[in-house]
Amino acid sequence: MGSYRMEECAHAGCLMELCIQLCITMLGKQLIQNNLFEIGVPKLKKMLRQRKIDKKHQEELNKTLHRHEKDHFLGPFVGLNPEYMEMIIQFGMVTLFVASFPLAPLFALLNNVIEIRLDAKKFVTELRRPIAVRAKDIGVWYTLLRGISKVAVIVNAFVISFTSDFIPRLVYQHMYSADGTLHGFVNHTLSYFNVSHFQPGTEPMQPMHLGYKVEVCRYKDYRDPPWSATPYEFSREFWAILAARLAFVIVFQNVVMLMSDFVDWLIPDIPKDISIQIHKERNLIVELFMKEERGKKYRNTIGDPSPQPLRSRPSSQA
């Protein structure tokens, strides 16, 4: 039977396996591994630095040196790229597979609550003060986050449609069920296989372990039975379910994209009161600029008066 079909997921479905993997990743890597590294690595580096310096000499330095001079002995600031990368990885894990593990955002929230305090302690007590640089936004990281959010919609659509029985159940209930219920759904998902079609060397080692010889067995797939004209080929039900899954992906993607664009339009990036305040400040700046220009013109007219014509004085002897 291995030559006719490939191995698939467990009986619980691929969605459950993905849920278990994501749960282990969120709990093990995010909450435990990352936070332990956040605490342990700076502490270890600080202990190594302190071992290289004599304790008496260090006490004398602490008494004589200023705060900015003491900060020189702290760890160097390597930048924010590792912190951004950690958040990008977490955001991708949460959004790309949230359909399989809905508790992922909760664990991400717990991790970030712990992370923000650990980062605050690390930047204040373990690292040198970074050089302040003005920035308009977070730069290319925003583009990455926006791209991941777009891809996450498509990935979740495929996860829901291809790794769960949601679409096959709907198709069976509306197309193949006699009474519109899920009665007989499991039997509908099982195909037939003739045990005499096993290739040499792949037969069961104990064909009589049930007490009788099994001639036909069932397996989970949508394939034609061995007595049909095209044995073990994909059946019509398979193509109908595949078309329904692809249609669900298209509909899901467009609906979510439209909803996200509507929410983006409904909630502005800048609140209304702040935008009004910015508009007022711009008007004040324009008014001050105009007053300054008028003042310059007035000072120029006073400082450079136009020359007056000379008049001759009358002679006193006349």
From TrEMBL:
Residue ranges constituting the Anoctamin transmembrane domain according to the UniProt record: 4-281
Question: Which GO MF term does the entry hold, naming one?
Answer: intracellularly calcium-gated chloride channel activity
Q: Where is this region: Disordered?
A: 298-318
Q: What is its main location?
A: membrane
Membrane-related topology note: Multi-pass membrane protein
- Domain of life, per lineage: Eukaryota
Query: Can you say what this protein is called?
Result: Anoctamin
Pfam family of this protein, just one? Answer: Anoctamin
Membrane-spanning intervals of the chain: 87-110
The organism of origin for this protein: Sinocyclocheilus anshuiensis
Q: Name one GO cellular component term.
A: plasma membrane
Under InterPro entries, the record lists: Anoctamin, Anoctamin_TM
Similarity section: Belongs to the anoctamin family.
Compartment(s) where it occurs, according to its Swiss-Prot or TrEMBL record: Membrane
Keywords, A to Z, come to: Membrane, Transmembrane, Transmembrane helix
Low complexity bias: start-end ranges = 309-318
